Each structure stands twice: as structure tokens, then as C-alpha cells.
From TrEMBL:
The lineage of its organism: Eukaryota, Fungi, Fungi incertae sedis, Mucoromycota, Mortierellomycotina. This is NodB homology domain-containing protein. It comes from Lobosporangium transversale. Gene3D superfamilies: Glycoside hydrolase/deacetylase. The keyword Mitochondrion does not apply. The keyword Hydrolase applies.
Amino acid sequence: VTSCQTPGQVALTYSEGPSEATMEMLQTLKEAQARVTFFANATWLQYMQYAGVTRHAYLDGHLIGMTYRLPSDSSSTLTDDQIKNDIAKNSRTIQDLIGVYPKYMKIHESNLKDSRLLSLVKTMGYSLVGFNMDEYDYKYTTLETAGQIAEVYNSMFSKQMDAYGRKASYVVAGYDVPSTGAAAALPKVVNTINTHGYDMVRLDGCVNDKTPYKK
């Protein structure tokens, strides 16, 4: 998944959380009545305060996916079954928390080129998620520079309209961790999306998926 089926839609996706930043973002999104997709990293869910954040996000109506990272640097040291079992274990951690198994998955960037892992993930029935827009929140990390993140959206939307005279659709990559400017930028990002007349949707709405979680 790298774009939506309907022009004018924007699916914001955040991975590597949950964290303190996620909590701040949930408040912003609640006030804006907007929905996004969070890819939870199961490693953080063993900590009570972070588990609570992901549960909160789910109950607020956001879509919960999974960020997955291999337990070792490369899949070459692991059997297919070991990888599948590890993925299943991570998935179960999320299911224990919100009552449903994640279906949408982002692979940690250190494993993105691991073709064996990618094919195993697909055979297990997960939907792999990419993006066609990067909000660069890892580049603009302070409160002072967070406005630059909203400008990324403004520039993308304006260039699209100038070139084609119509809206496109976007799946945006962001990171809900404190080391990025994602949380600080979000109020301005939401305003920019609204100003340009785009609709914020969850990933399942972006691809018209009636079953956003695995059975």
C-alpha cells in the first residue's frame, strides 16, 4: 500500500511508537476529530504506560498496525518457522491488548531489503505498507522547526494542483517517537490538510478495506 484509492485522501501513518509523543498526538487528533494509523512496536508494549497509549489509540478509533523488526540483524540466521513464530508472537502481544490481530504491517527500515522476510510476511496474510510522501519529522525535530513539516504537506499539495489541476492521494510516513517533530507539527499538519480540502483517513478507509484486522 503506497497510495489511496480515492483522490483527495491522506492517510497519516506513524511507526516505532507508542511513546509520550503518541499520547500528545492522540489529544491533538481528538480535538481535530481526525483518524490516523499507528504501527505499534510490540517491544514497547511490555511497559504498562506504553501499552495504555496503544489501547487508548485503539479506543479513540485509530487503526492499529504493527511495526516489525527481526530479532537478529538478518533473516539468514533464522529458519522460516522461527521468523513466523516471532511475527506471531509480536502480533499476539497487540491482540492481548486490543482484542484484535493487526493486519497492516511496516517493516523496520533495517530489514526493508530482506526479500525473504517480505515474502514470509505476505504469505502470513499481512498487508505491507509503504508510502508516497515522507513528512521528514526525523529531520525537523524541534518545536521551532516543526512548522517545516506542515510546509512539506503544503508544498506537495500545491505542486500537485499546479501540475495536474486536481488532487492526488497520499500515504504519509511519520514516526510517533519523542526524537522527531511529529507531535509538535501535528496541529499545523491537520490545518494544512484541511485548508487544501483533503480528507484524513485511516489506511483501511484509504484502500476500502472492510476487514482491517486479521482473524
